[in-house]
Every structure is written in structure tokens, then in C-alpha cells.
TrEMBL record:
<dbReference type="InterPro" id="IPR009057">
    <property type="entry name" value="Homeodomain-like_sf"/>
</dbReference>
<dbReference type="InterPro" id="IPR001647">
    <property type="entry name" value="HTH_TetR"/>
</dbReference>
<dbReference type="InterPro" id="IPR041347">
    <property type="entry name" value="MftR_C"/>
</dbReference>
<feature type="DNA-binding region" description="H-T-H motif">
    <location>
        <begin position="37"/>
        <end position="56"/>
    </location>
</feature>
<keyword id="KW-0805">Transcription regulation</keyword>
<feature type="domain" description="HTH tetR-type">
    <location>
        <begin position="14"/>
        <end position="74"/>
    </location>
</feature>
<protein>
    <submittedName>
        <fullName>TetR/AcrR family transcriptional regulator</fullName>
    </submittedName>
</protein>
<keyword id="KW-0238">DNA-binding</keyword>
<keyword id="KW-0804">Transcription</keyword>
<dbReference type="InterPro" id="IPR050109">
    <property type="entry name" value="HTH-type_TetR-like_transc_reg"/>
</dbReference>
<dbReference type="Pfam" id="PF17754">
    <property type="entry name" value="TetR_C_14"/>
</dbReference>
<dbReference type="Pfam" id="PF00440">
    <property type="entry name" value="TetR_N"/>
</dbReference>
Length: 211
């Protein structure tokens, strides 16, 4: 009996995951998120219902399939900041780079996808939860970076401000997309507006958590 190489198995798993996600997204856009069932997604992808739930334990994760990267994103940027760089400077630079790439994690998406999210109370609630989780992950990294004690509220307060700036910009990208602006226009507007948002934090956070 031949043994399938680990790399091939992992590749097949990624392909199956992407196939399920693609069919789910198509159905959500066509039918709406709430009316679409896991059984319909499984049938479209030609897999068992259990296969769908094994890859995506929550139905919302089928639509927001970058959720893990989203939650860990700000914390990872701060943890990997360059020597002499503050948390604010690292996050500002990373966000502007994400705008140049039109990164979906920053909020860029085709109009039908953005509308599908905007029309779903469940997905909007899940997005709020993911933003909160992202702030909490960032607060942990900031506490470690600054040596803050467990009772020090400062890292949480800073994470709320930095996360809030990203939340506003994420919502701005969605707003412009829903208004019918194409990705290039959205990127141009946000690239101009984002520095103003981060500038508001400079007076209090420019020297905070410098590596």
C-alpha cells in the first residue's frame, strides 16, 4: 500500500477548503447568507455536510474565511516591528501597504461580496466580534512589549485606539465599495485619508511600545 506524501495531503486539504469556500460564497451572494444552508453548500461542493463543518465549524467562517489572519494581524505586525519602530508606526506602514495591495483582510472586496455582508445581521455581528478579538490579541502583545502588569489597563486602552483606527478604515473601505466605487478608487481615497486617521494618534502614541 502506498502512503500519500504529507505535502500532497495538505495540498488536497487546502484545495478542498477553497472549493467549499468558493461554492459557499457564490451561494451566499446569490441567495443571501441566512437562507443558505450547509446542506446546499455541501451539495454544490460535492462533499459531505460533515466535511464542510470539519473545515468550517461556524457557518460565518465560510463567508469570512480570512478570520484567523484578521484576528492575528495587528498583533503580528507589532510583534514583528523593526528596532526603533513604535507600534503606531508599524501599524501605519502595514496598513498603507495593505491598501496598495487591496488586501481583503483590510476590507477590500468585490461589490457583490460587500453587499452580501452588509445585508446579513449575522455576518455584521461576527465582524464586530472579530474586531474585538483582534483588539484583545493586540493588547496582549502590547502588554508583553511594554512589560505591563496584569492589572495595567494601558495596553488595552492603546489597543482600543489602534484597533479603532483600523475599524474606522475597514468600515470606510466597505462604505466606498457599497457606494459603487471600484477598487482603484477606494484605494486612492483611503490612501489619502488613512494618514489623517493615524496622525490623530501621534501625540499620545508616537513613543509607545518602541522596539
Amino acid at each position: 500500500m502506498s502512503i500519500e506524501p504529507v505535502g500532497l495531503r495538505e495540498s488536497k486539504k487546502r484545495e478542498t477548503r477553497q472549493l467549499i469556500s468558493d461554492h459557499a460564497t457564490r451561494l451566499f451572494i446569490e441567495q443571501g447568507f441566512e437562507p443558505t444552508t450547509i446542506a446546499e453548500i455541501a451539495a454544490a461542493a460535492r462533499v459531505a455536510k460533515k466535511t464542510v463543518t470539519n473545515y468550517f465549524p461556524r457557518k460565518e467562517d465560510l463567508a469570512l474565511d480570512h478570520h484567523e489572519e484578521f484576528v492575528a494581524g495587528l498583533a503580528g505586525i507589532v510583534a514583528g516591528r523593526a528596532a526603533g519602530e513604535s507600534a503606531l508606526a508599524a501599524l501605519r506602514g502595514a496598513f498603507l501597504s495593505a491598501v496598495e495591495r487591496r488586501d481583503p483582510v483590510a476590507g477590500f472586496a468585490p461589490l457583490p461580496f460587500a453587499r452580501m455582508i452588509a445585508d446579513s445581521p449575522t455576518l455584521l455581528a461576527r465582524l464586530r466580534d472579530l474586531h474585538d478579538q483582534r483588539d484583545a490579541a493586540l493588547a496582549e502583545v502590547l502588554a508583553e512589549a511594554t512589560g505591563a502588569g496584569p492589572d495595567d489597563i494601558t495596553p488595552r486602552a492603546v489597543a482600543a485606539q489602534l484597533g479603532g483606527a483600523h475599524r474606522v478604515l475597514f468600515q470606510r473601505i466597505q462604505e466606498l465599495t457599497l457606494a459603487g466605487r471600484d477598487a482603484a478608487e477606494v484605494a486612492a481615497v483611503v490612501a489619502e485619508e488613512a494618514p489623517r486617521v493615524f496622525d490623530l494618534l501621534e501625540p499620545s502614541l508616537a513613543e509607545y511600545a518602541v522596539a
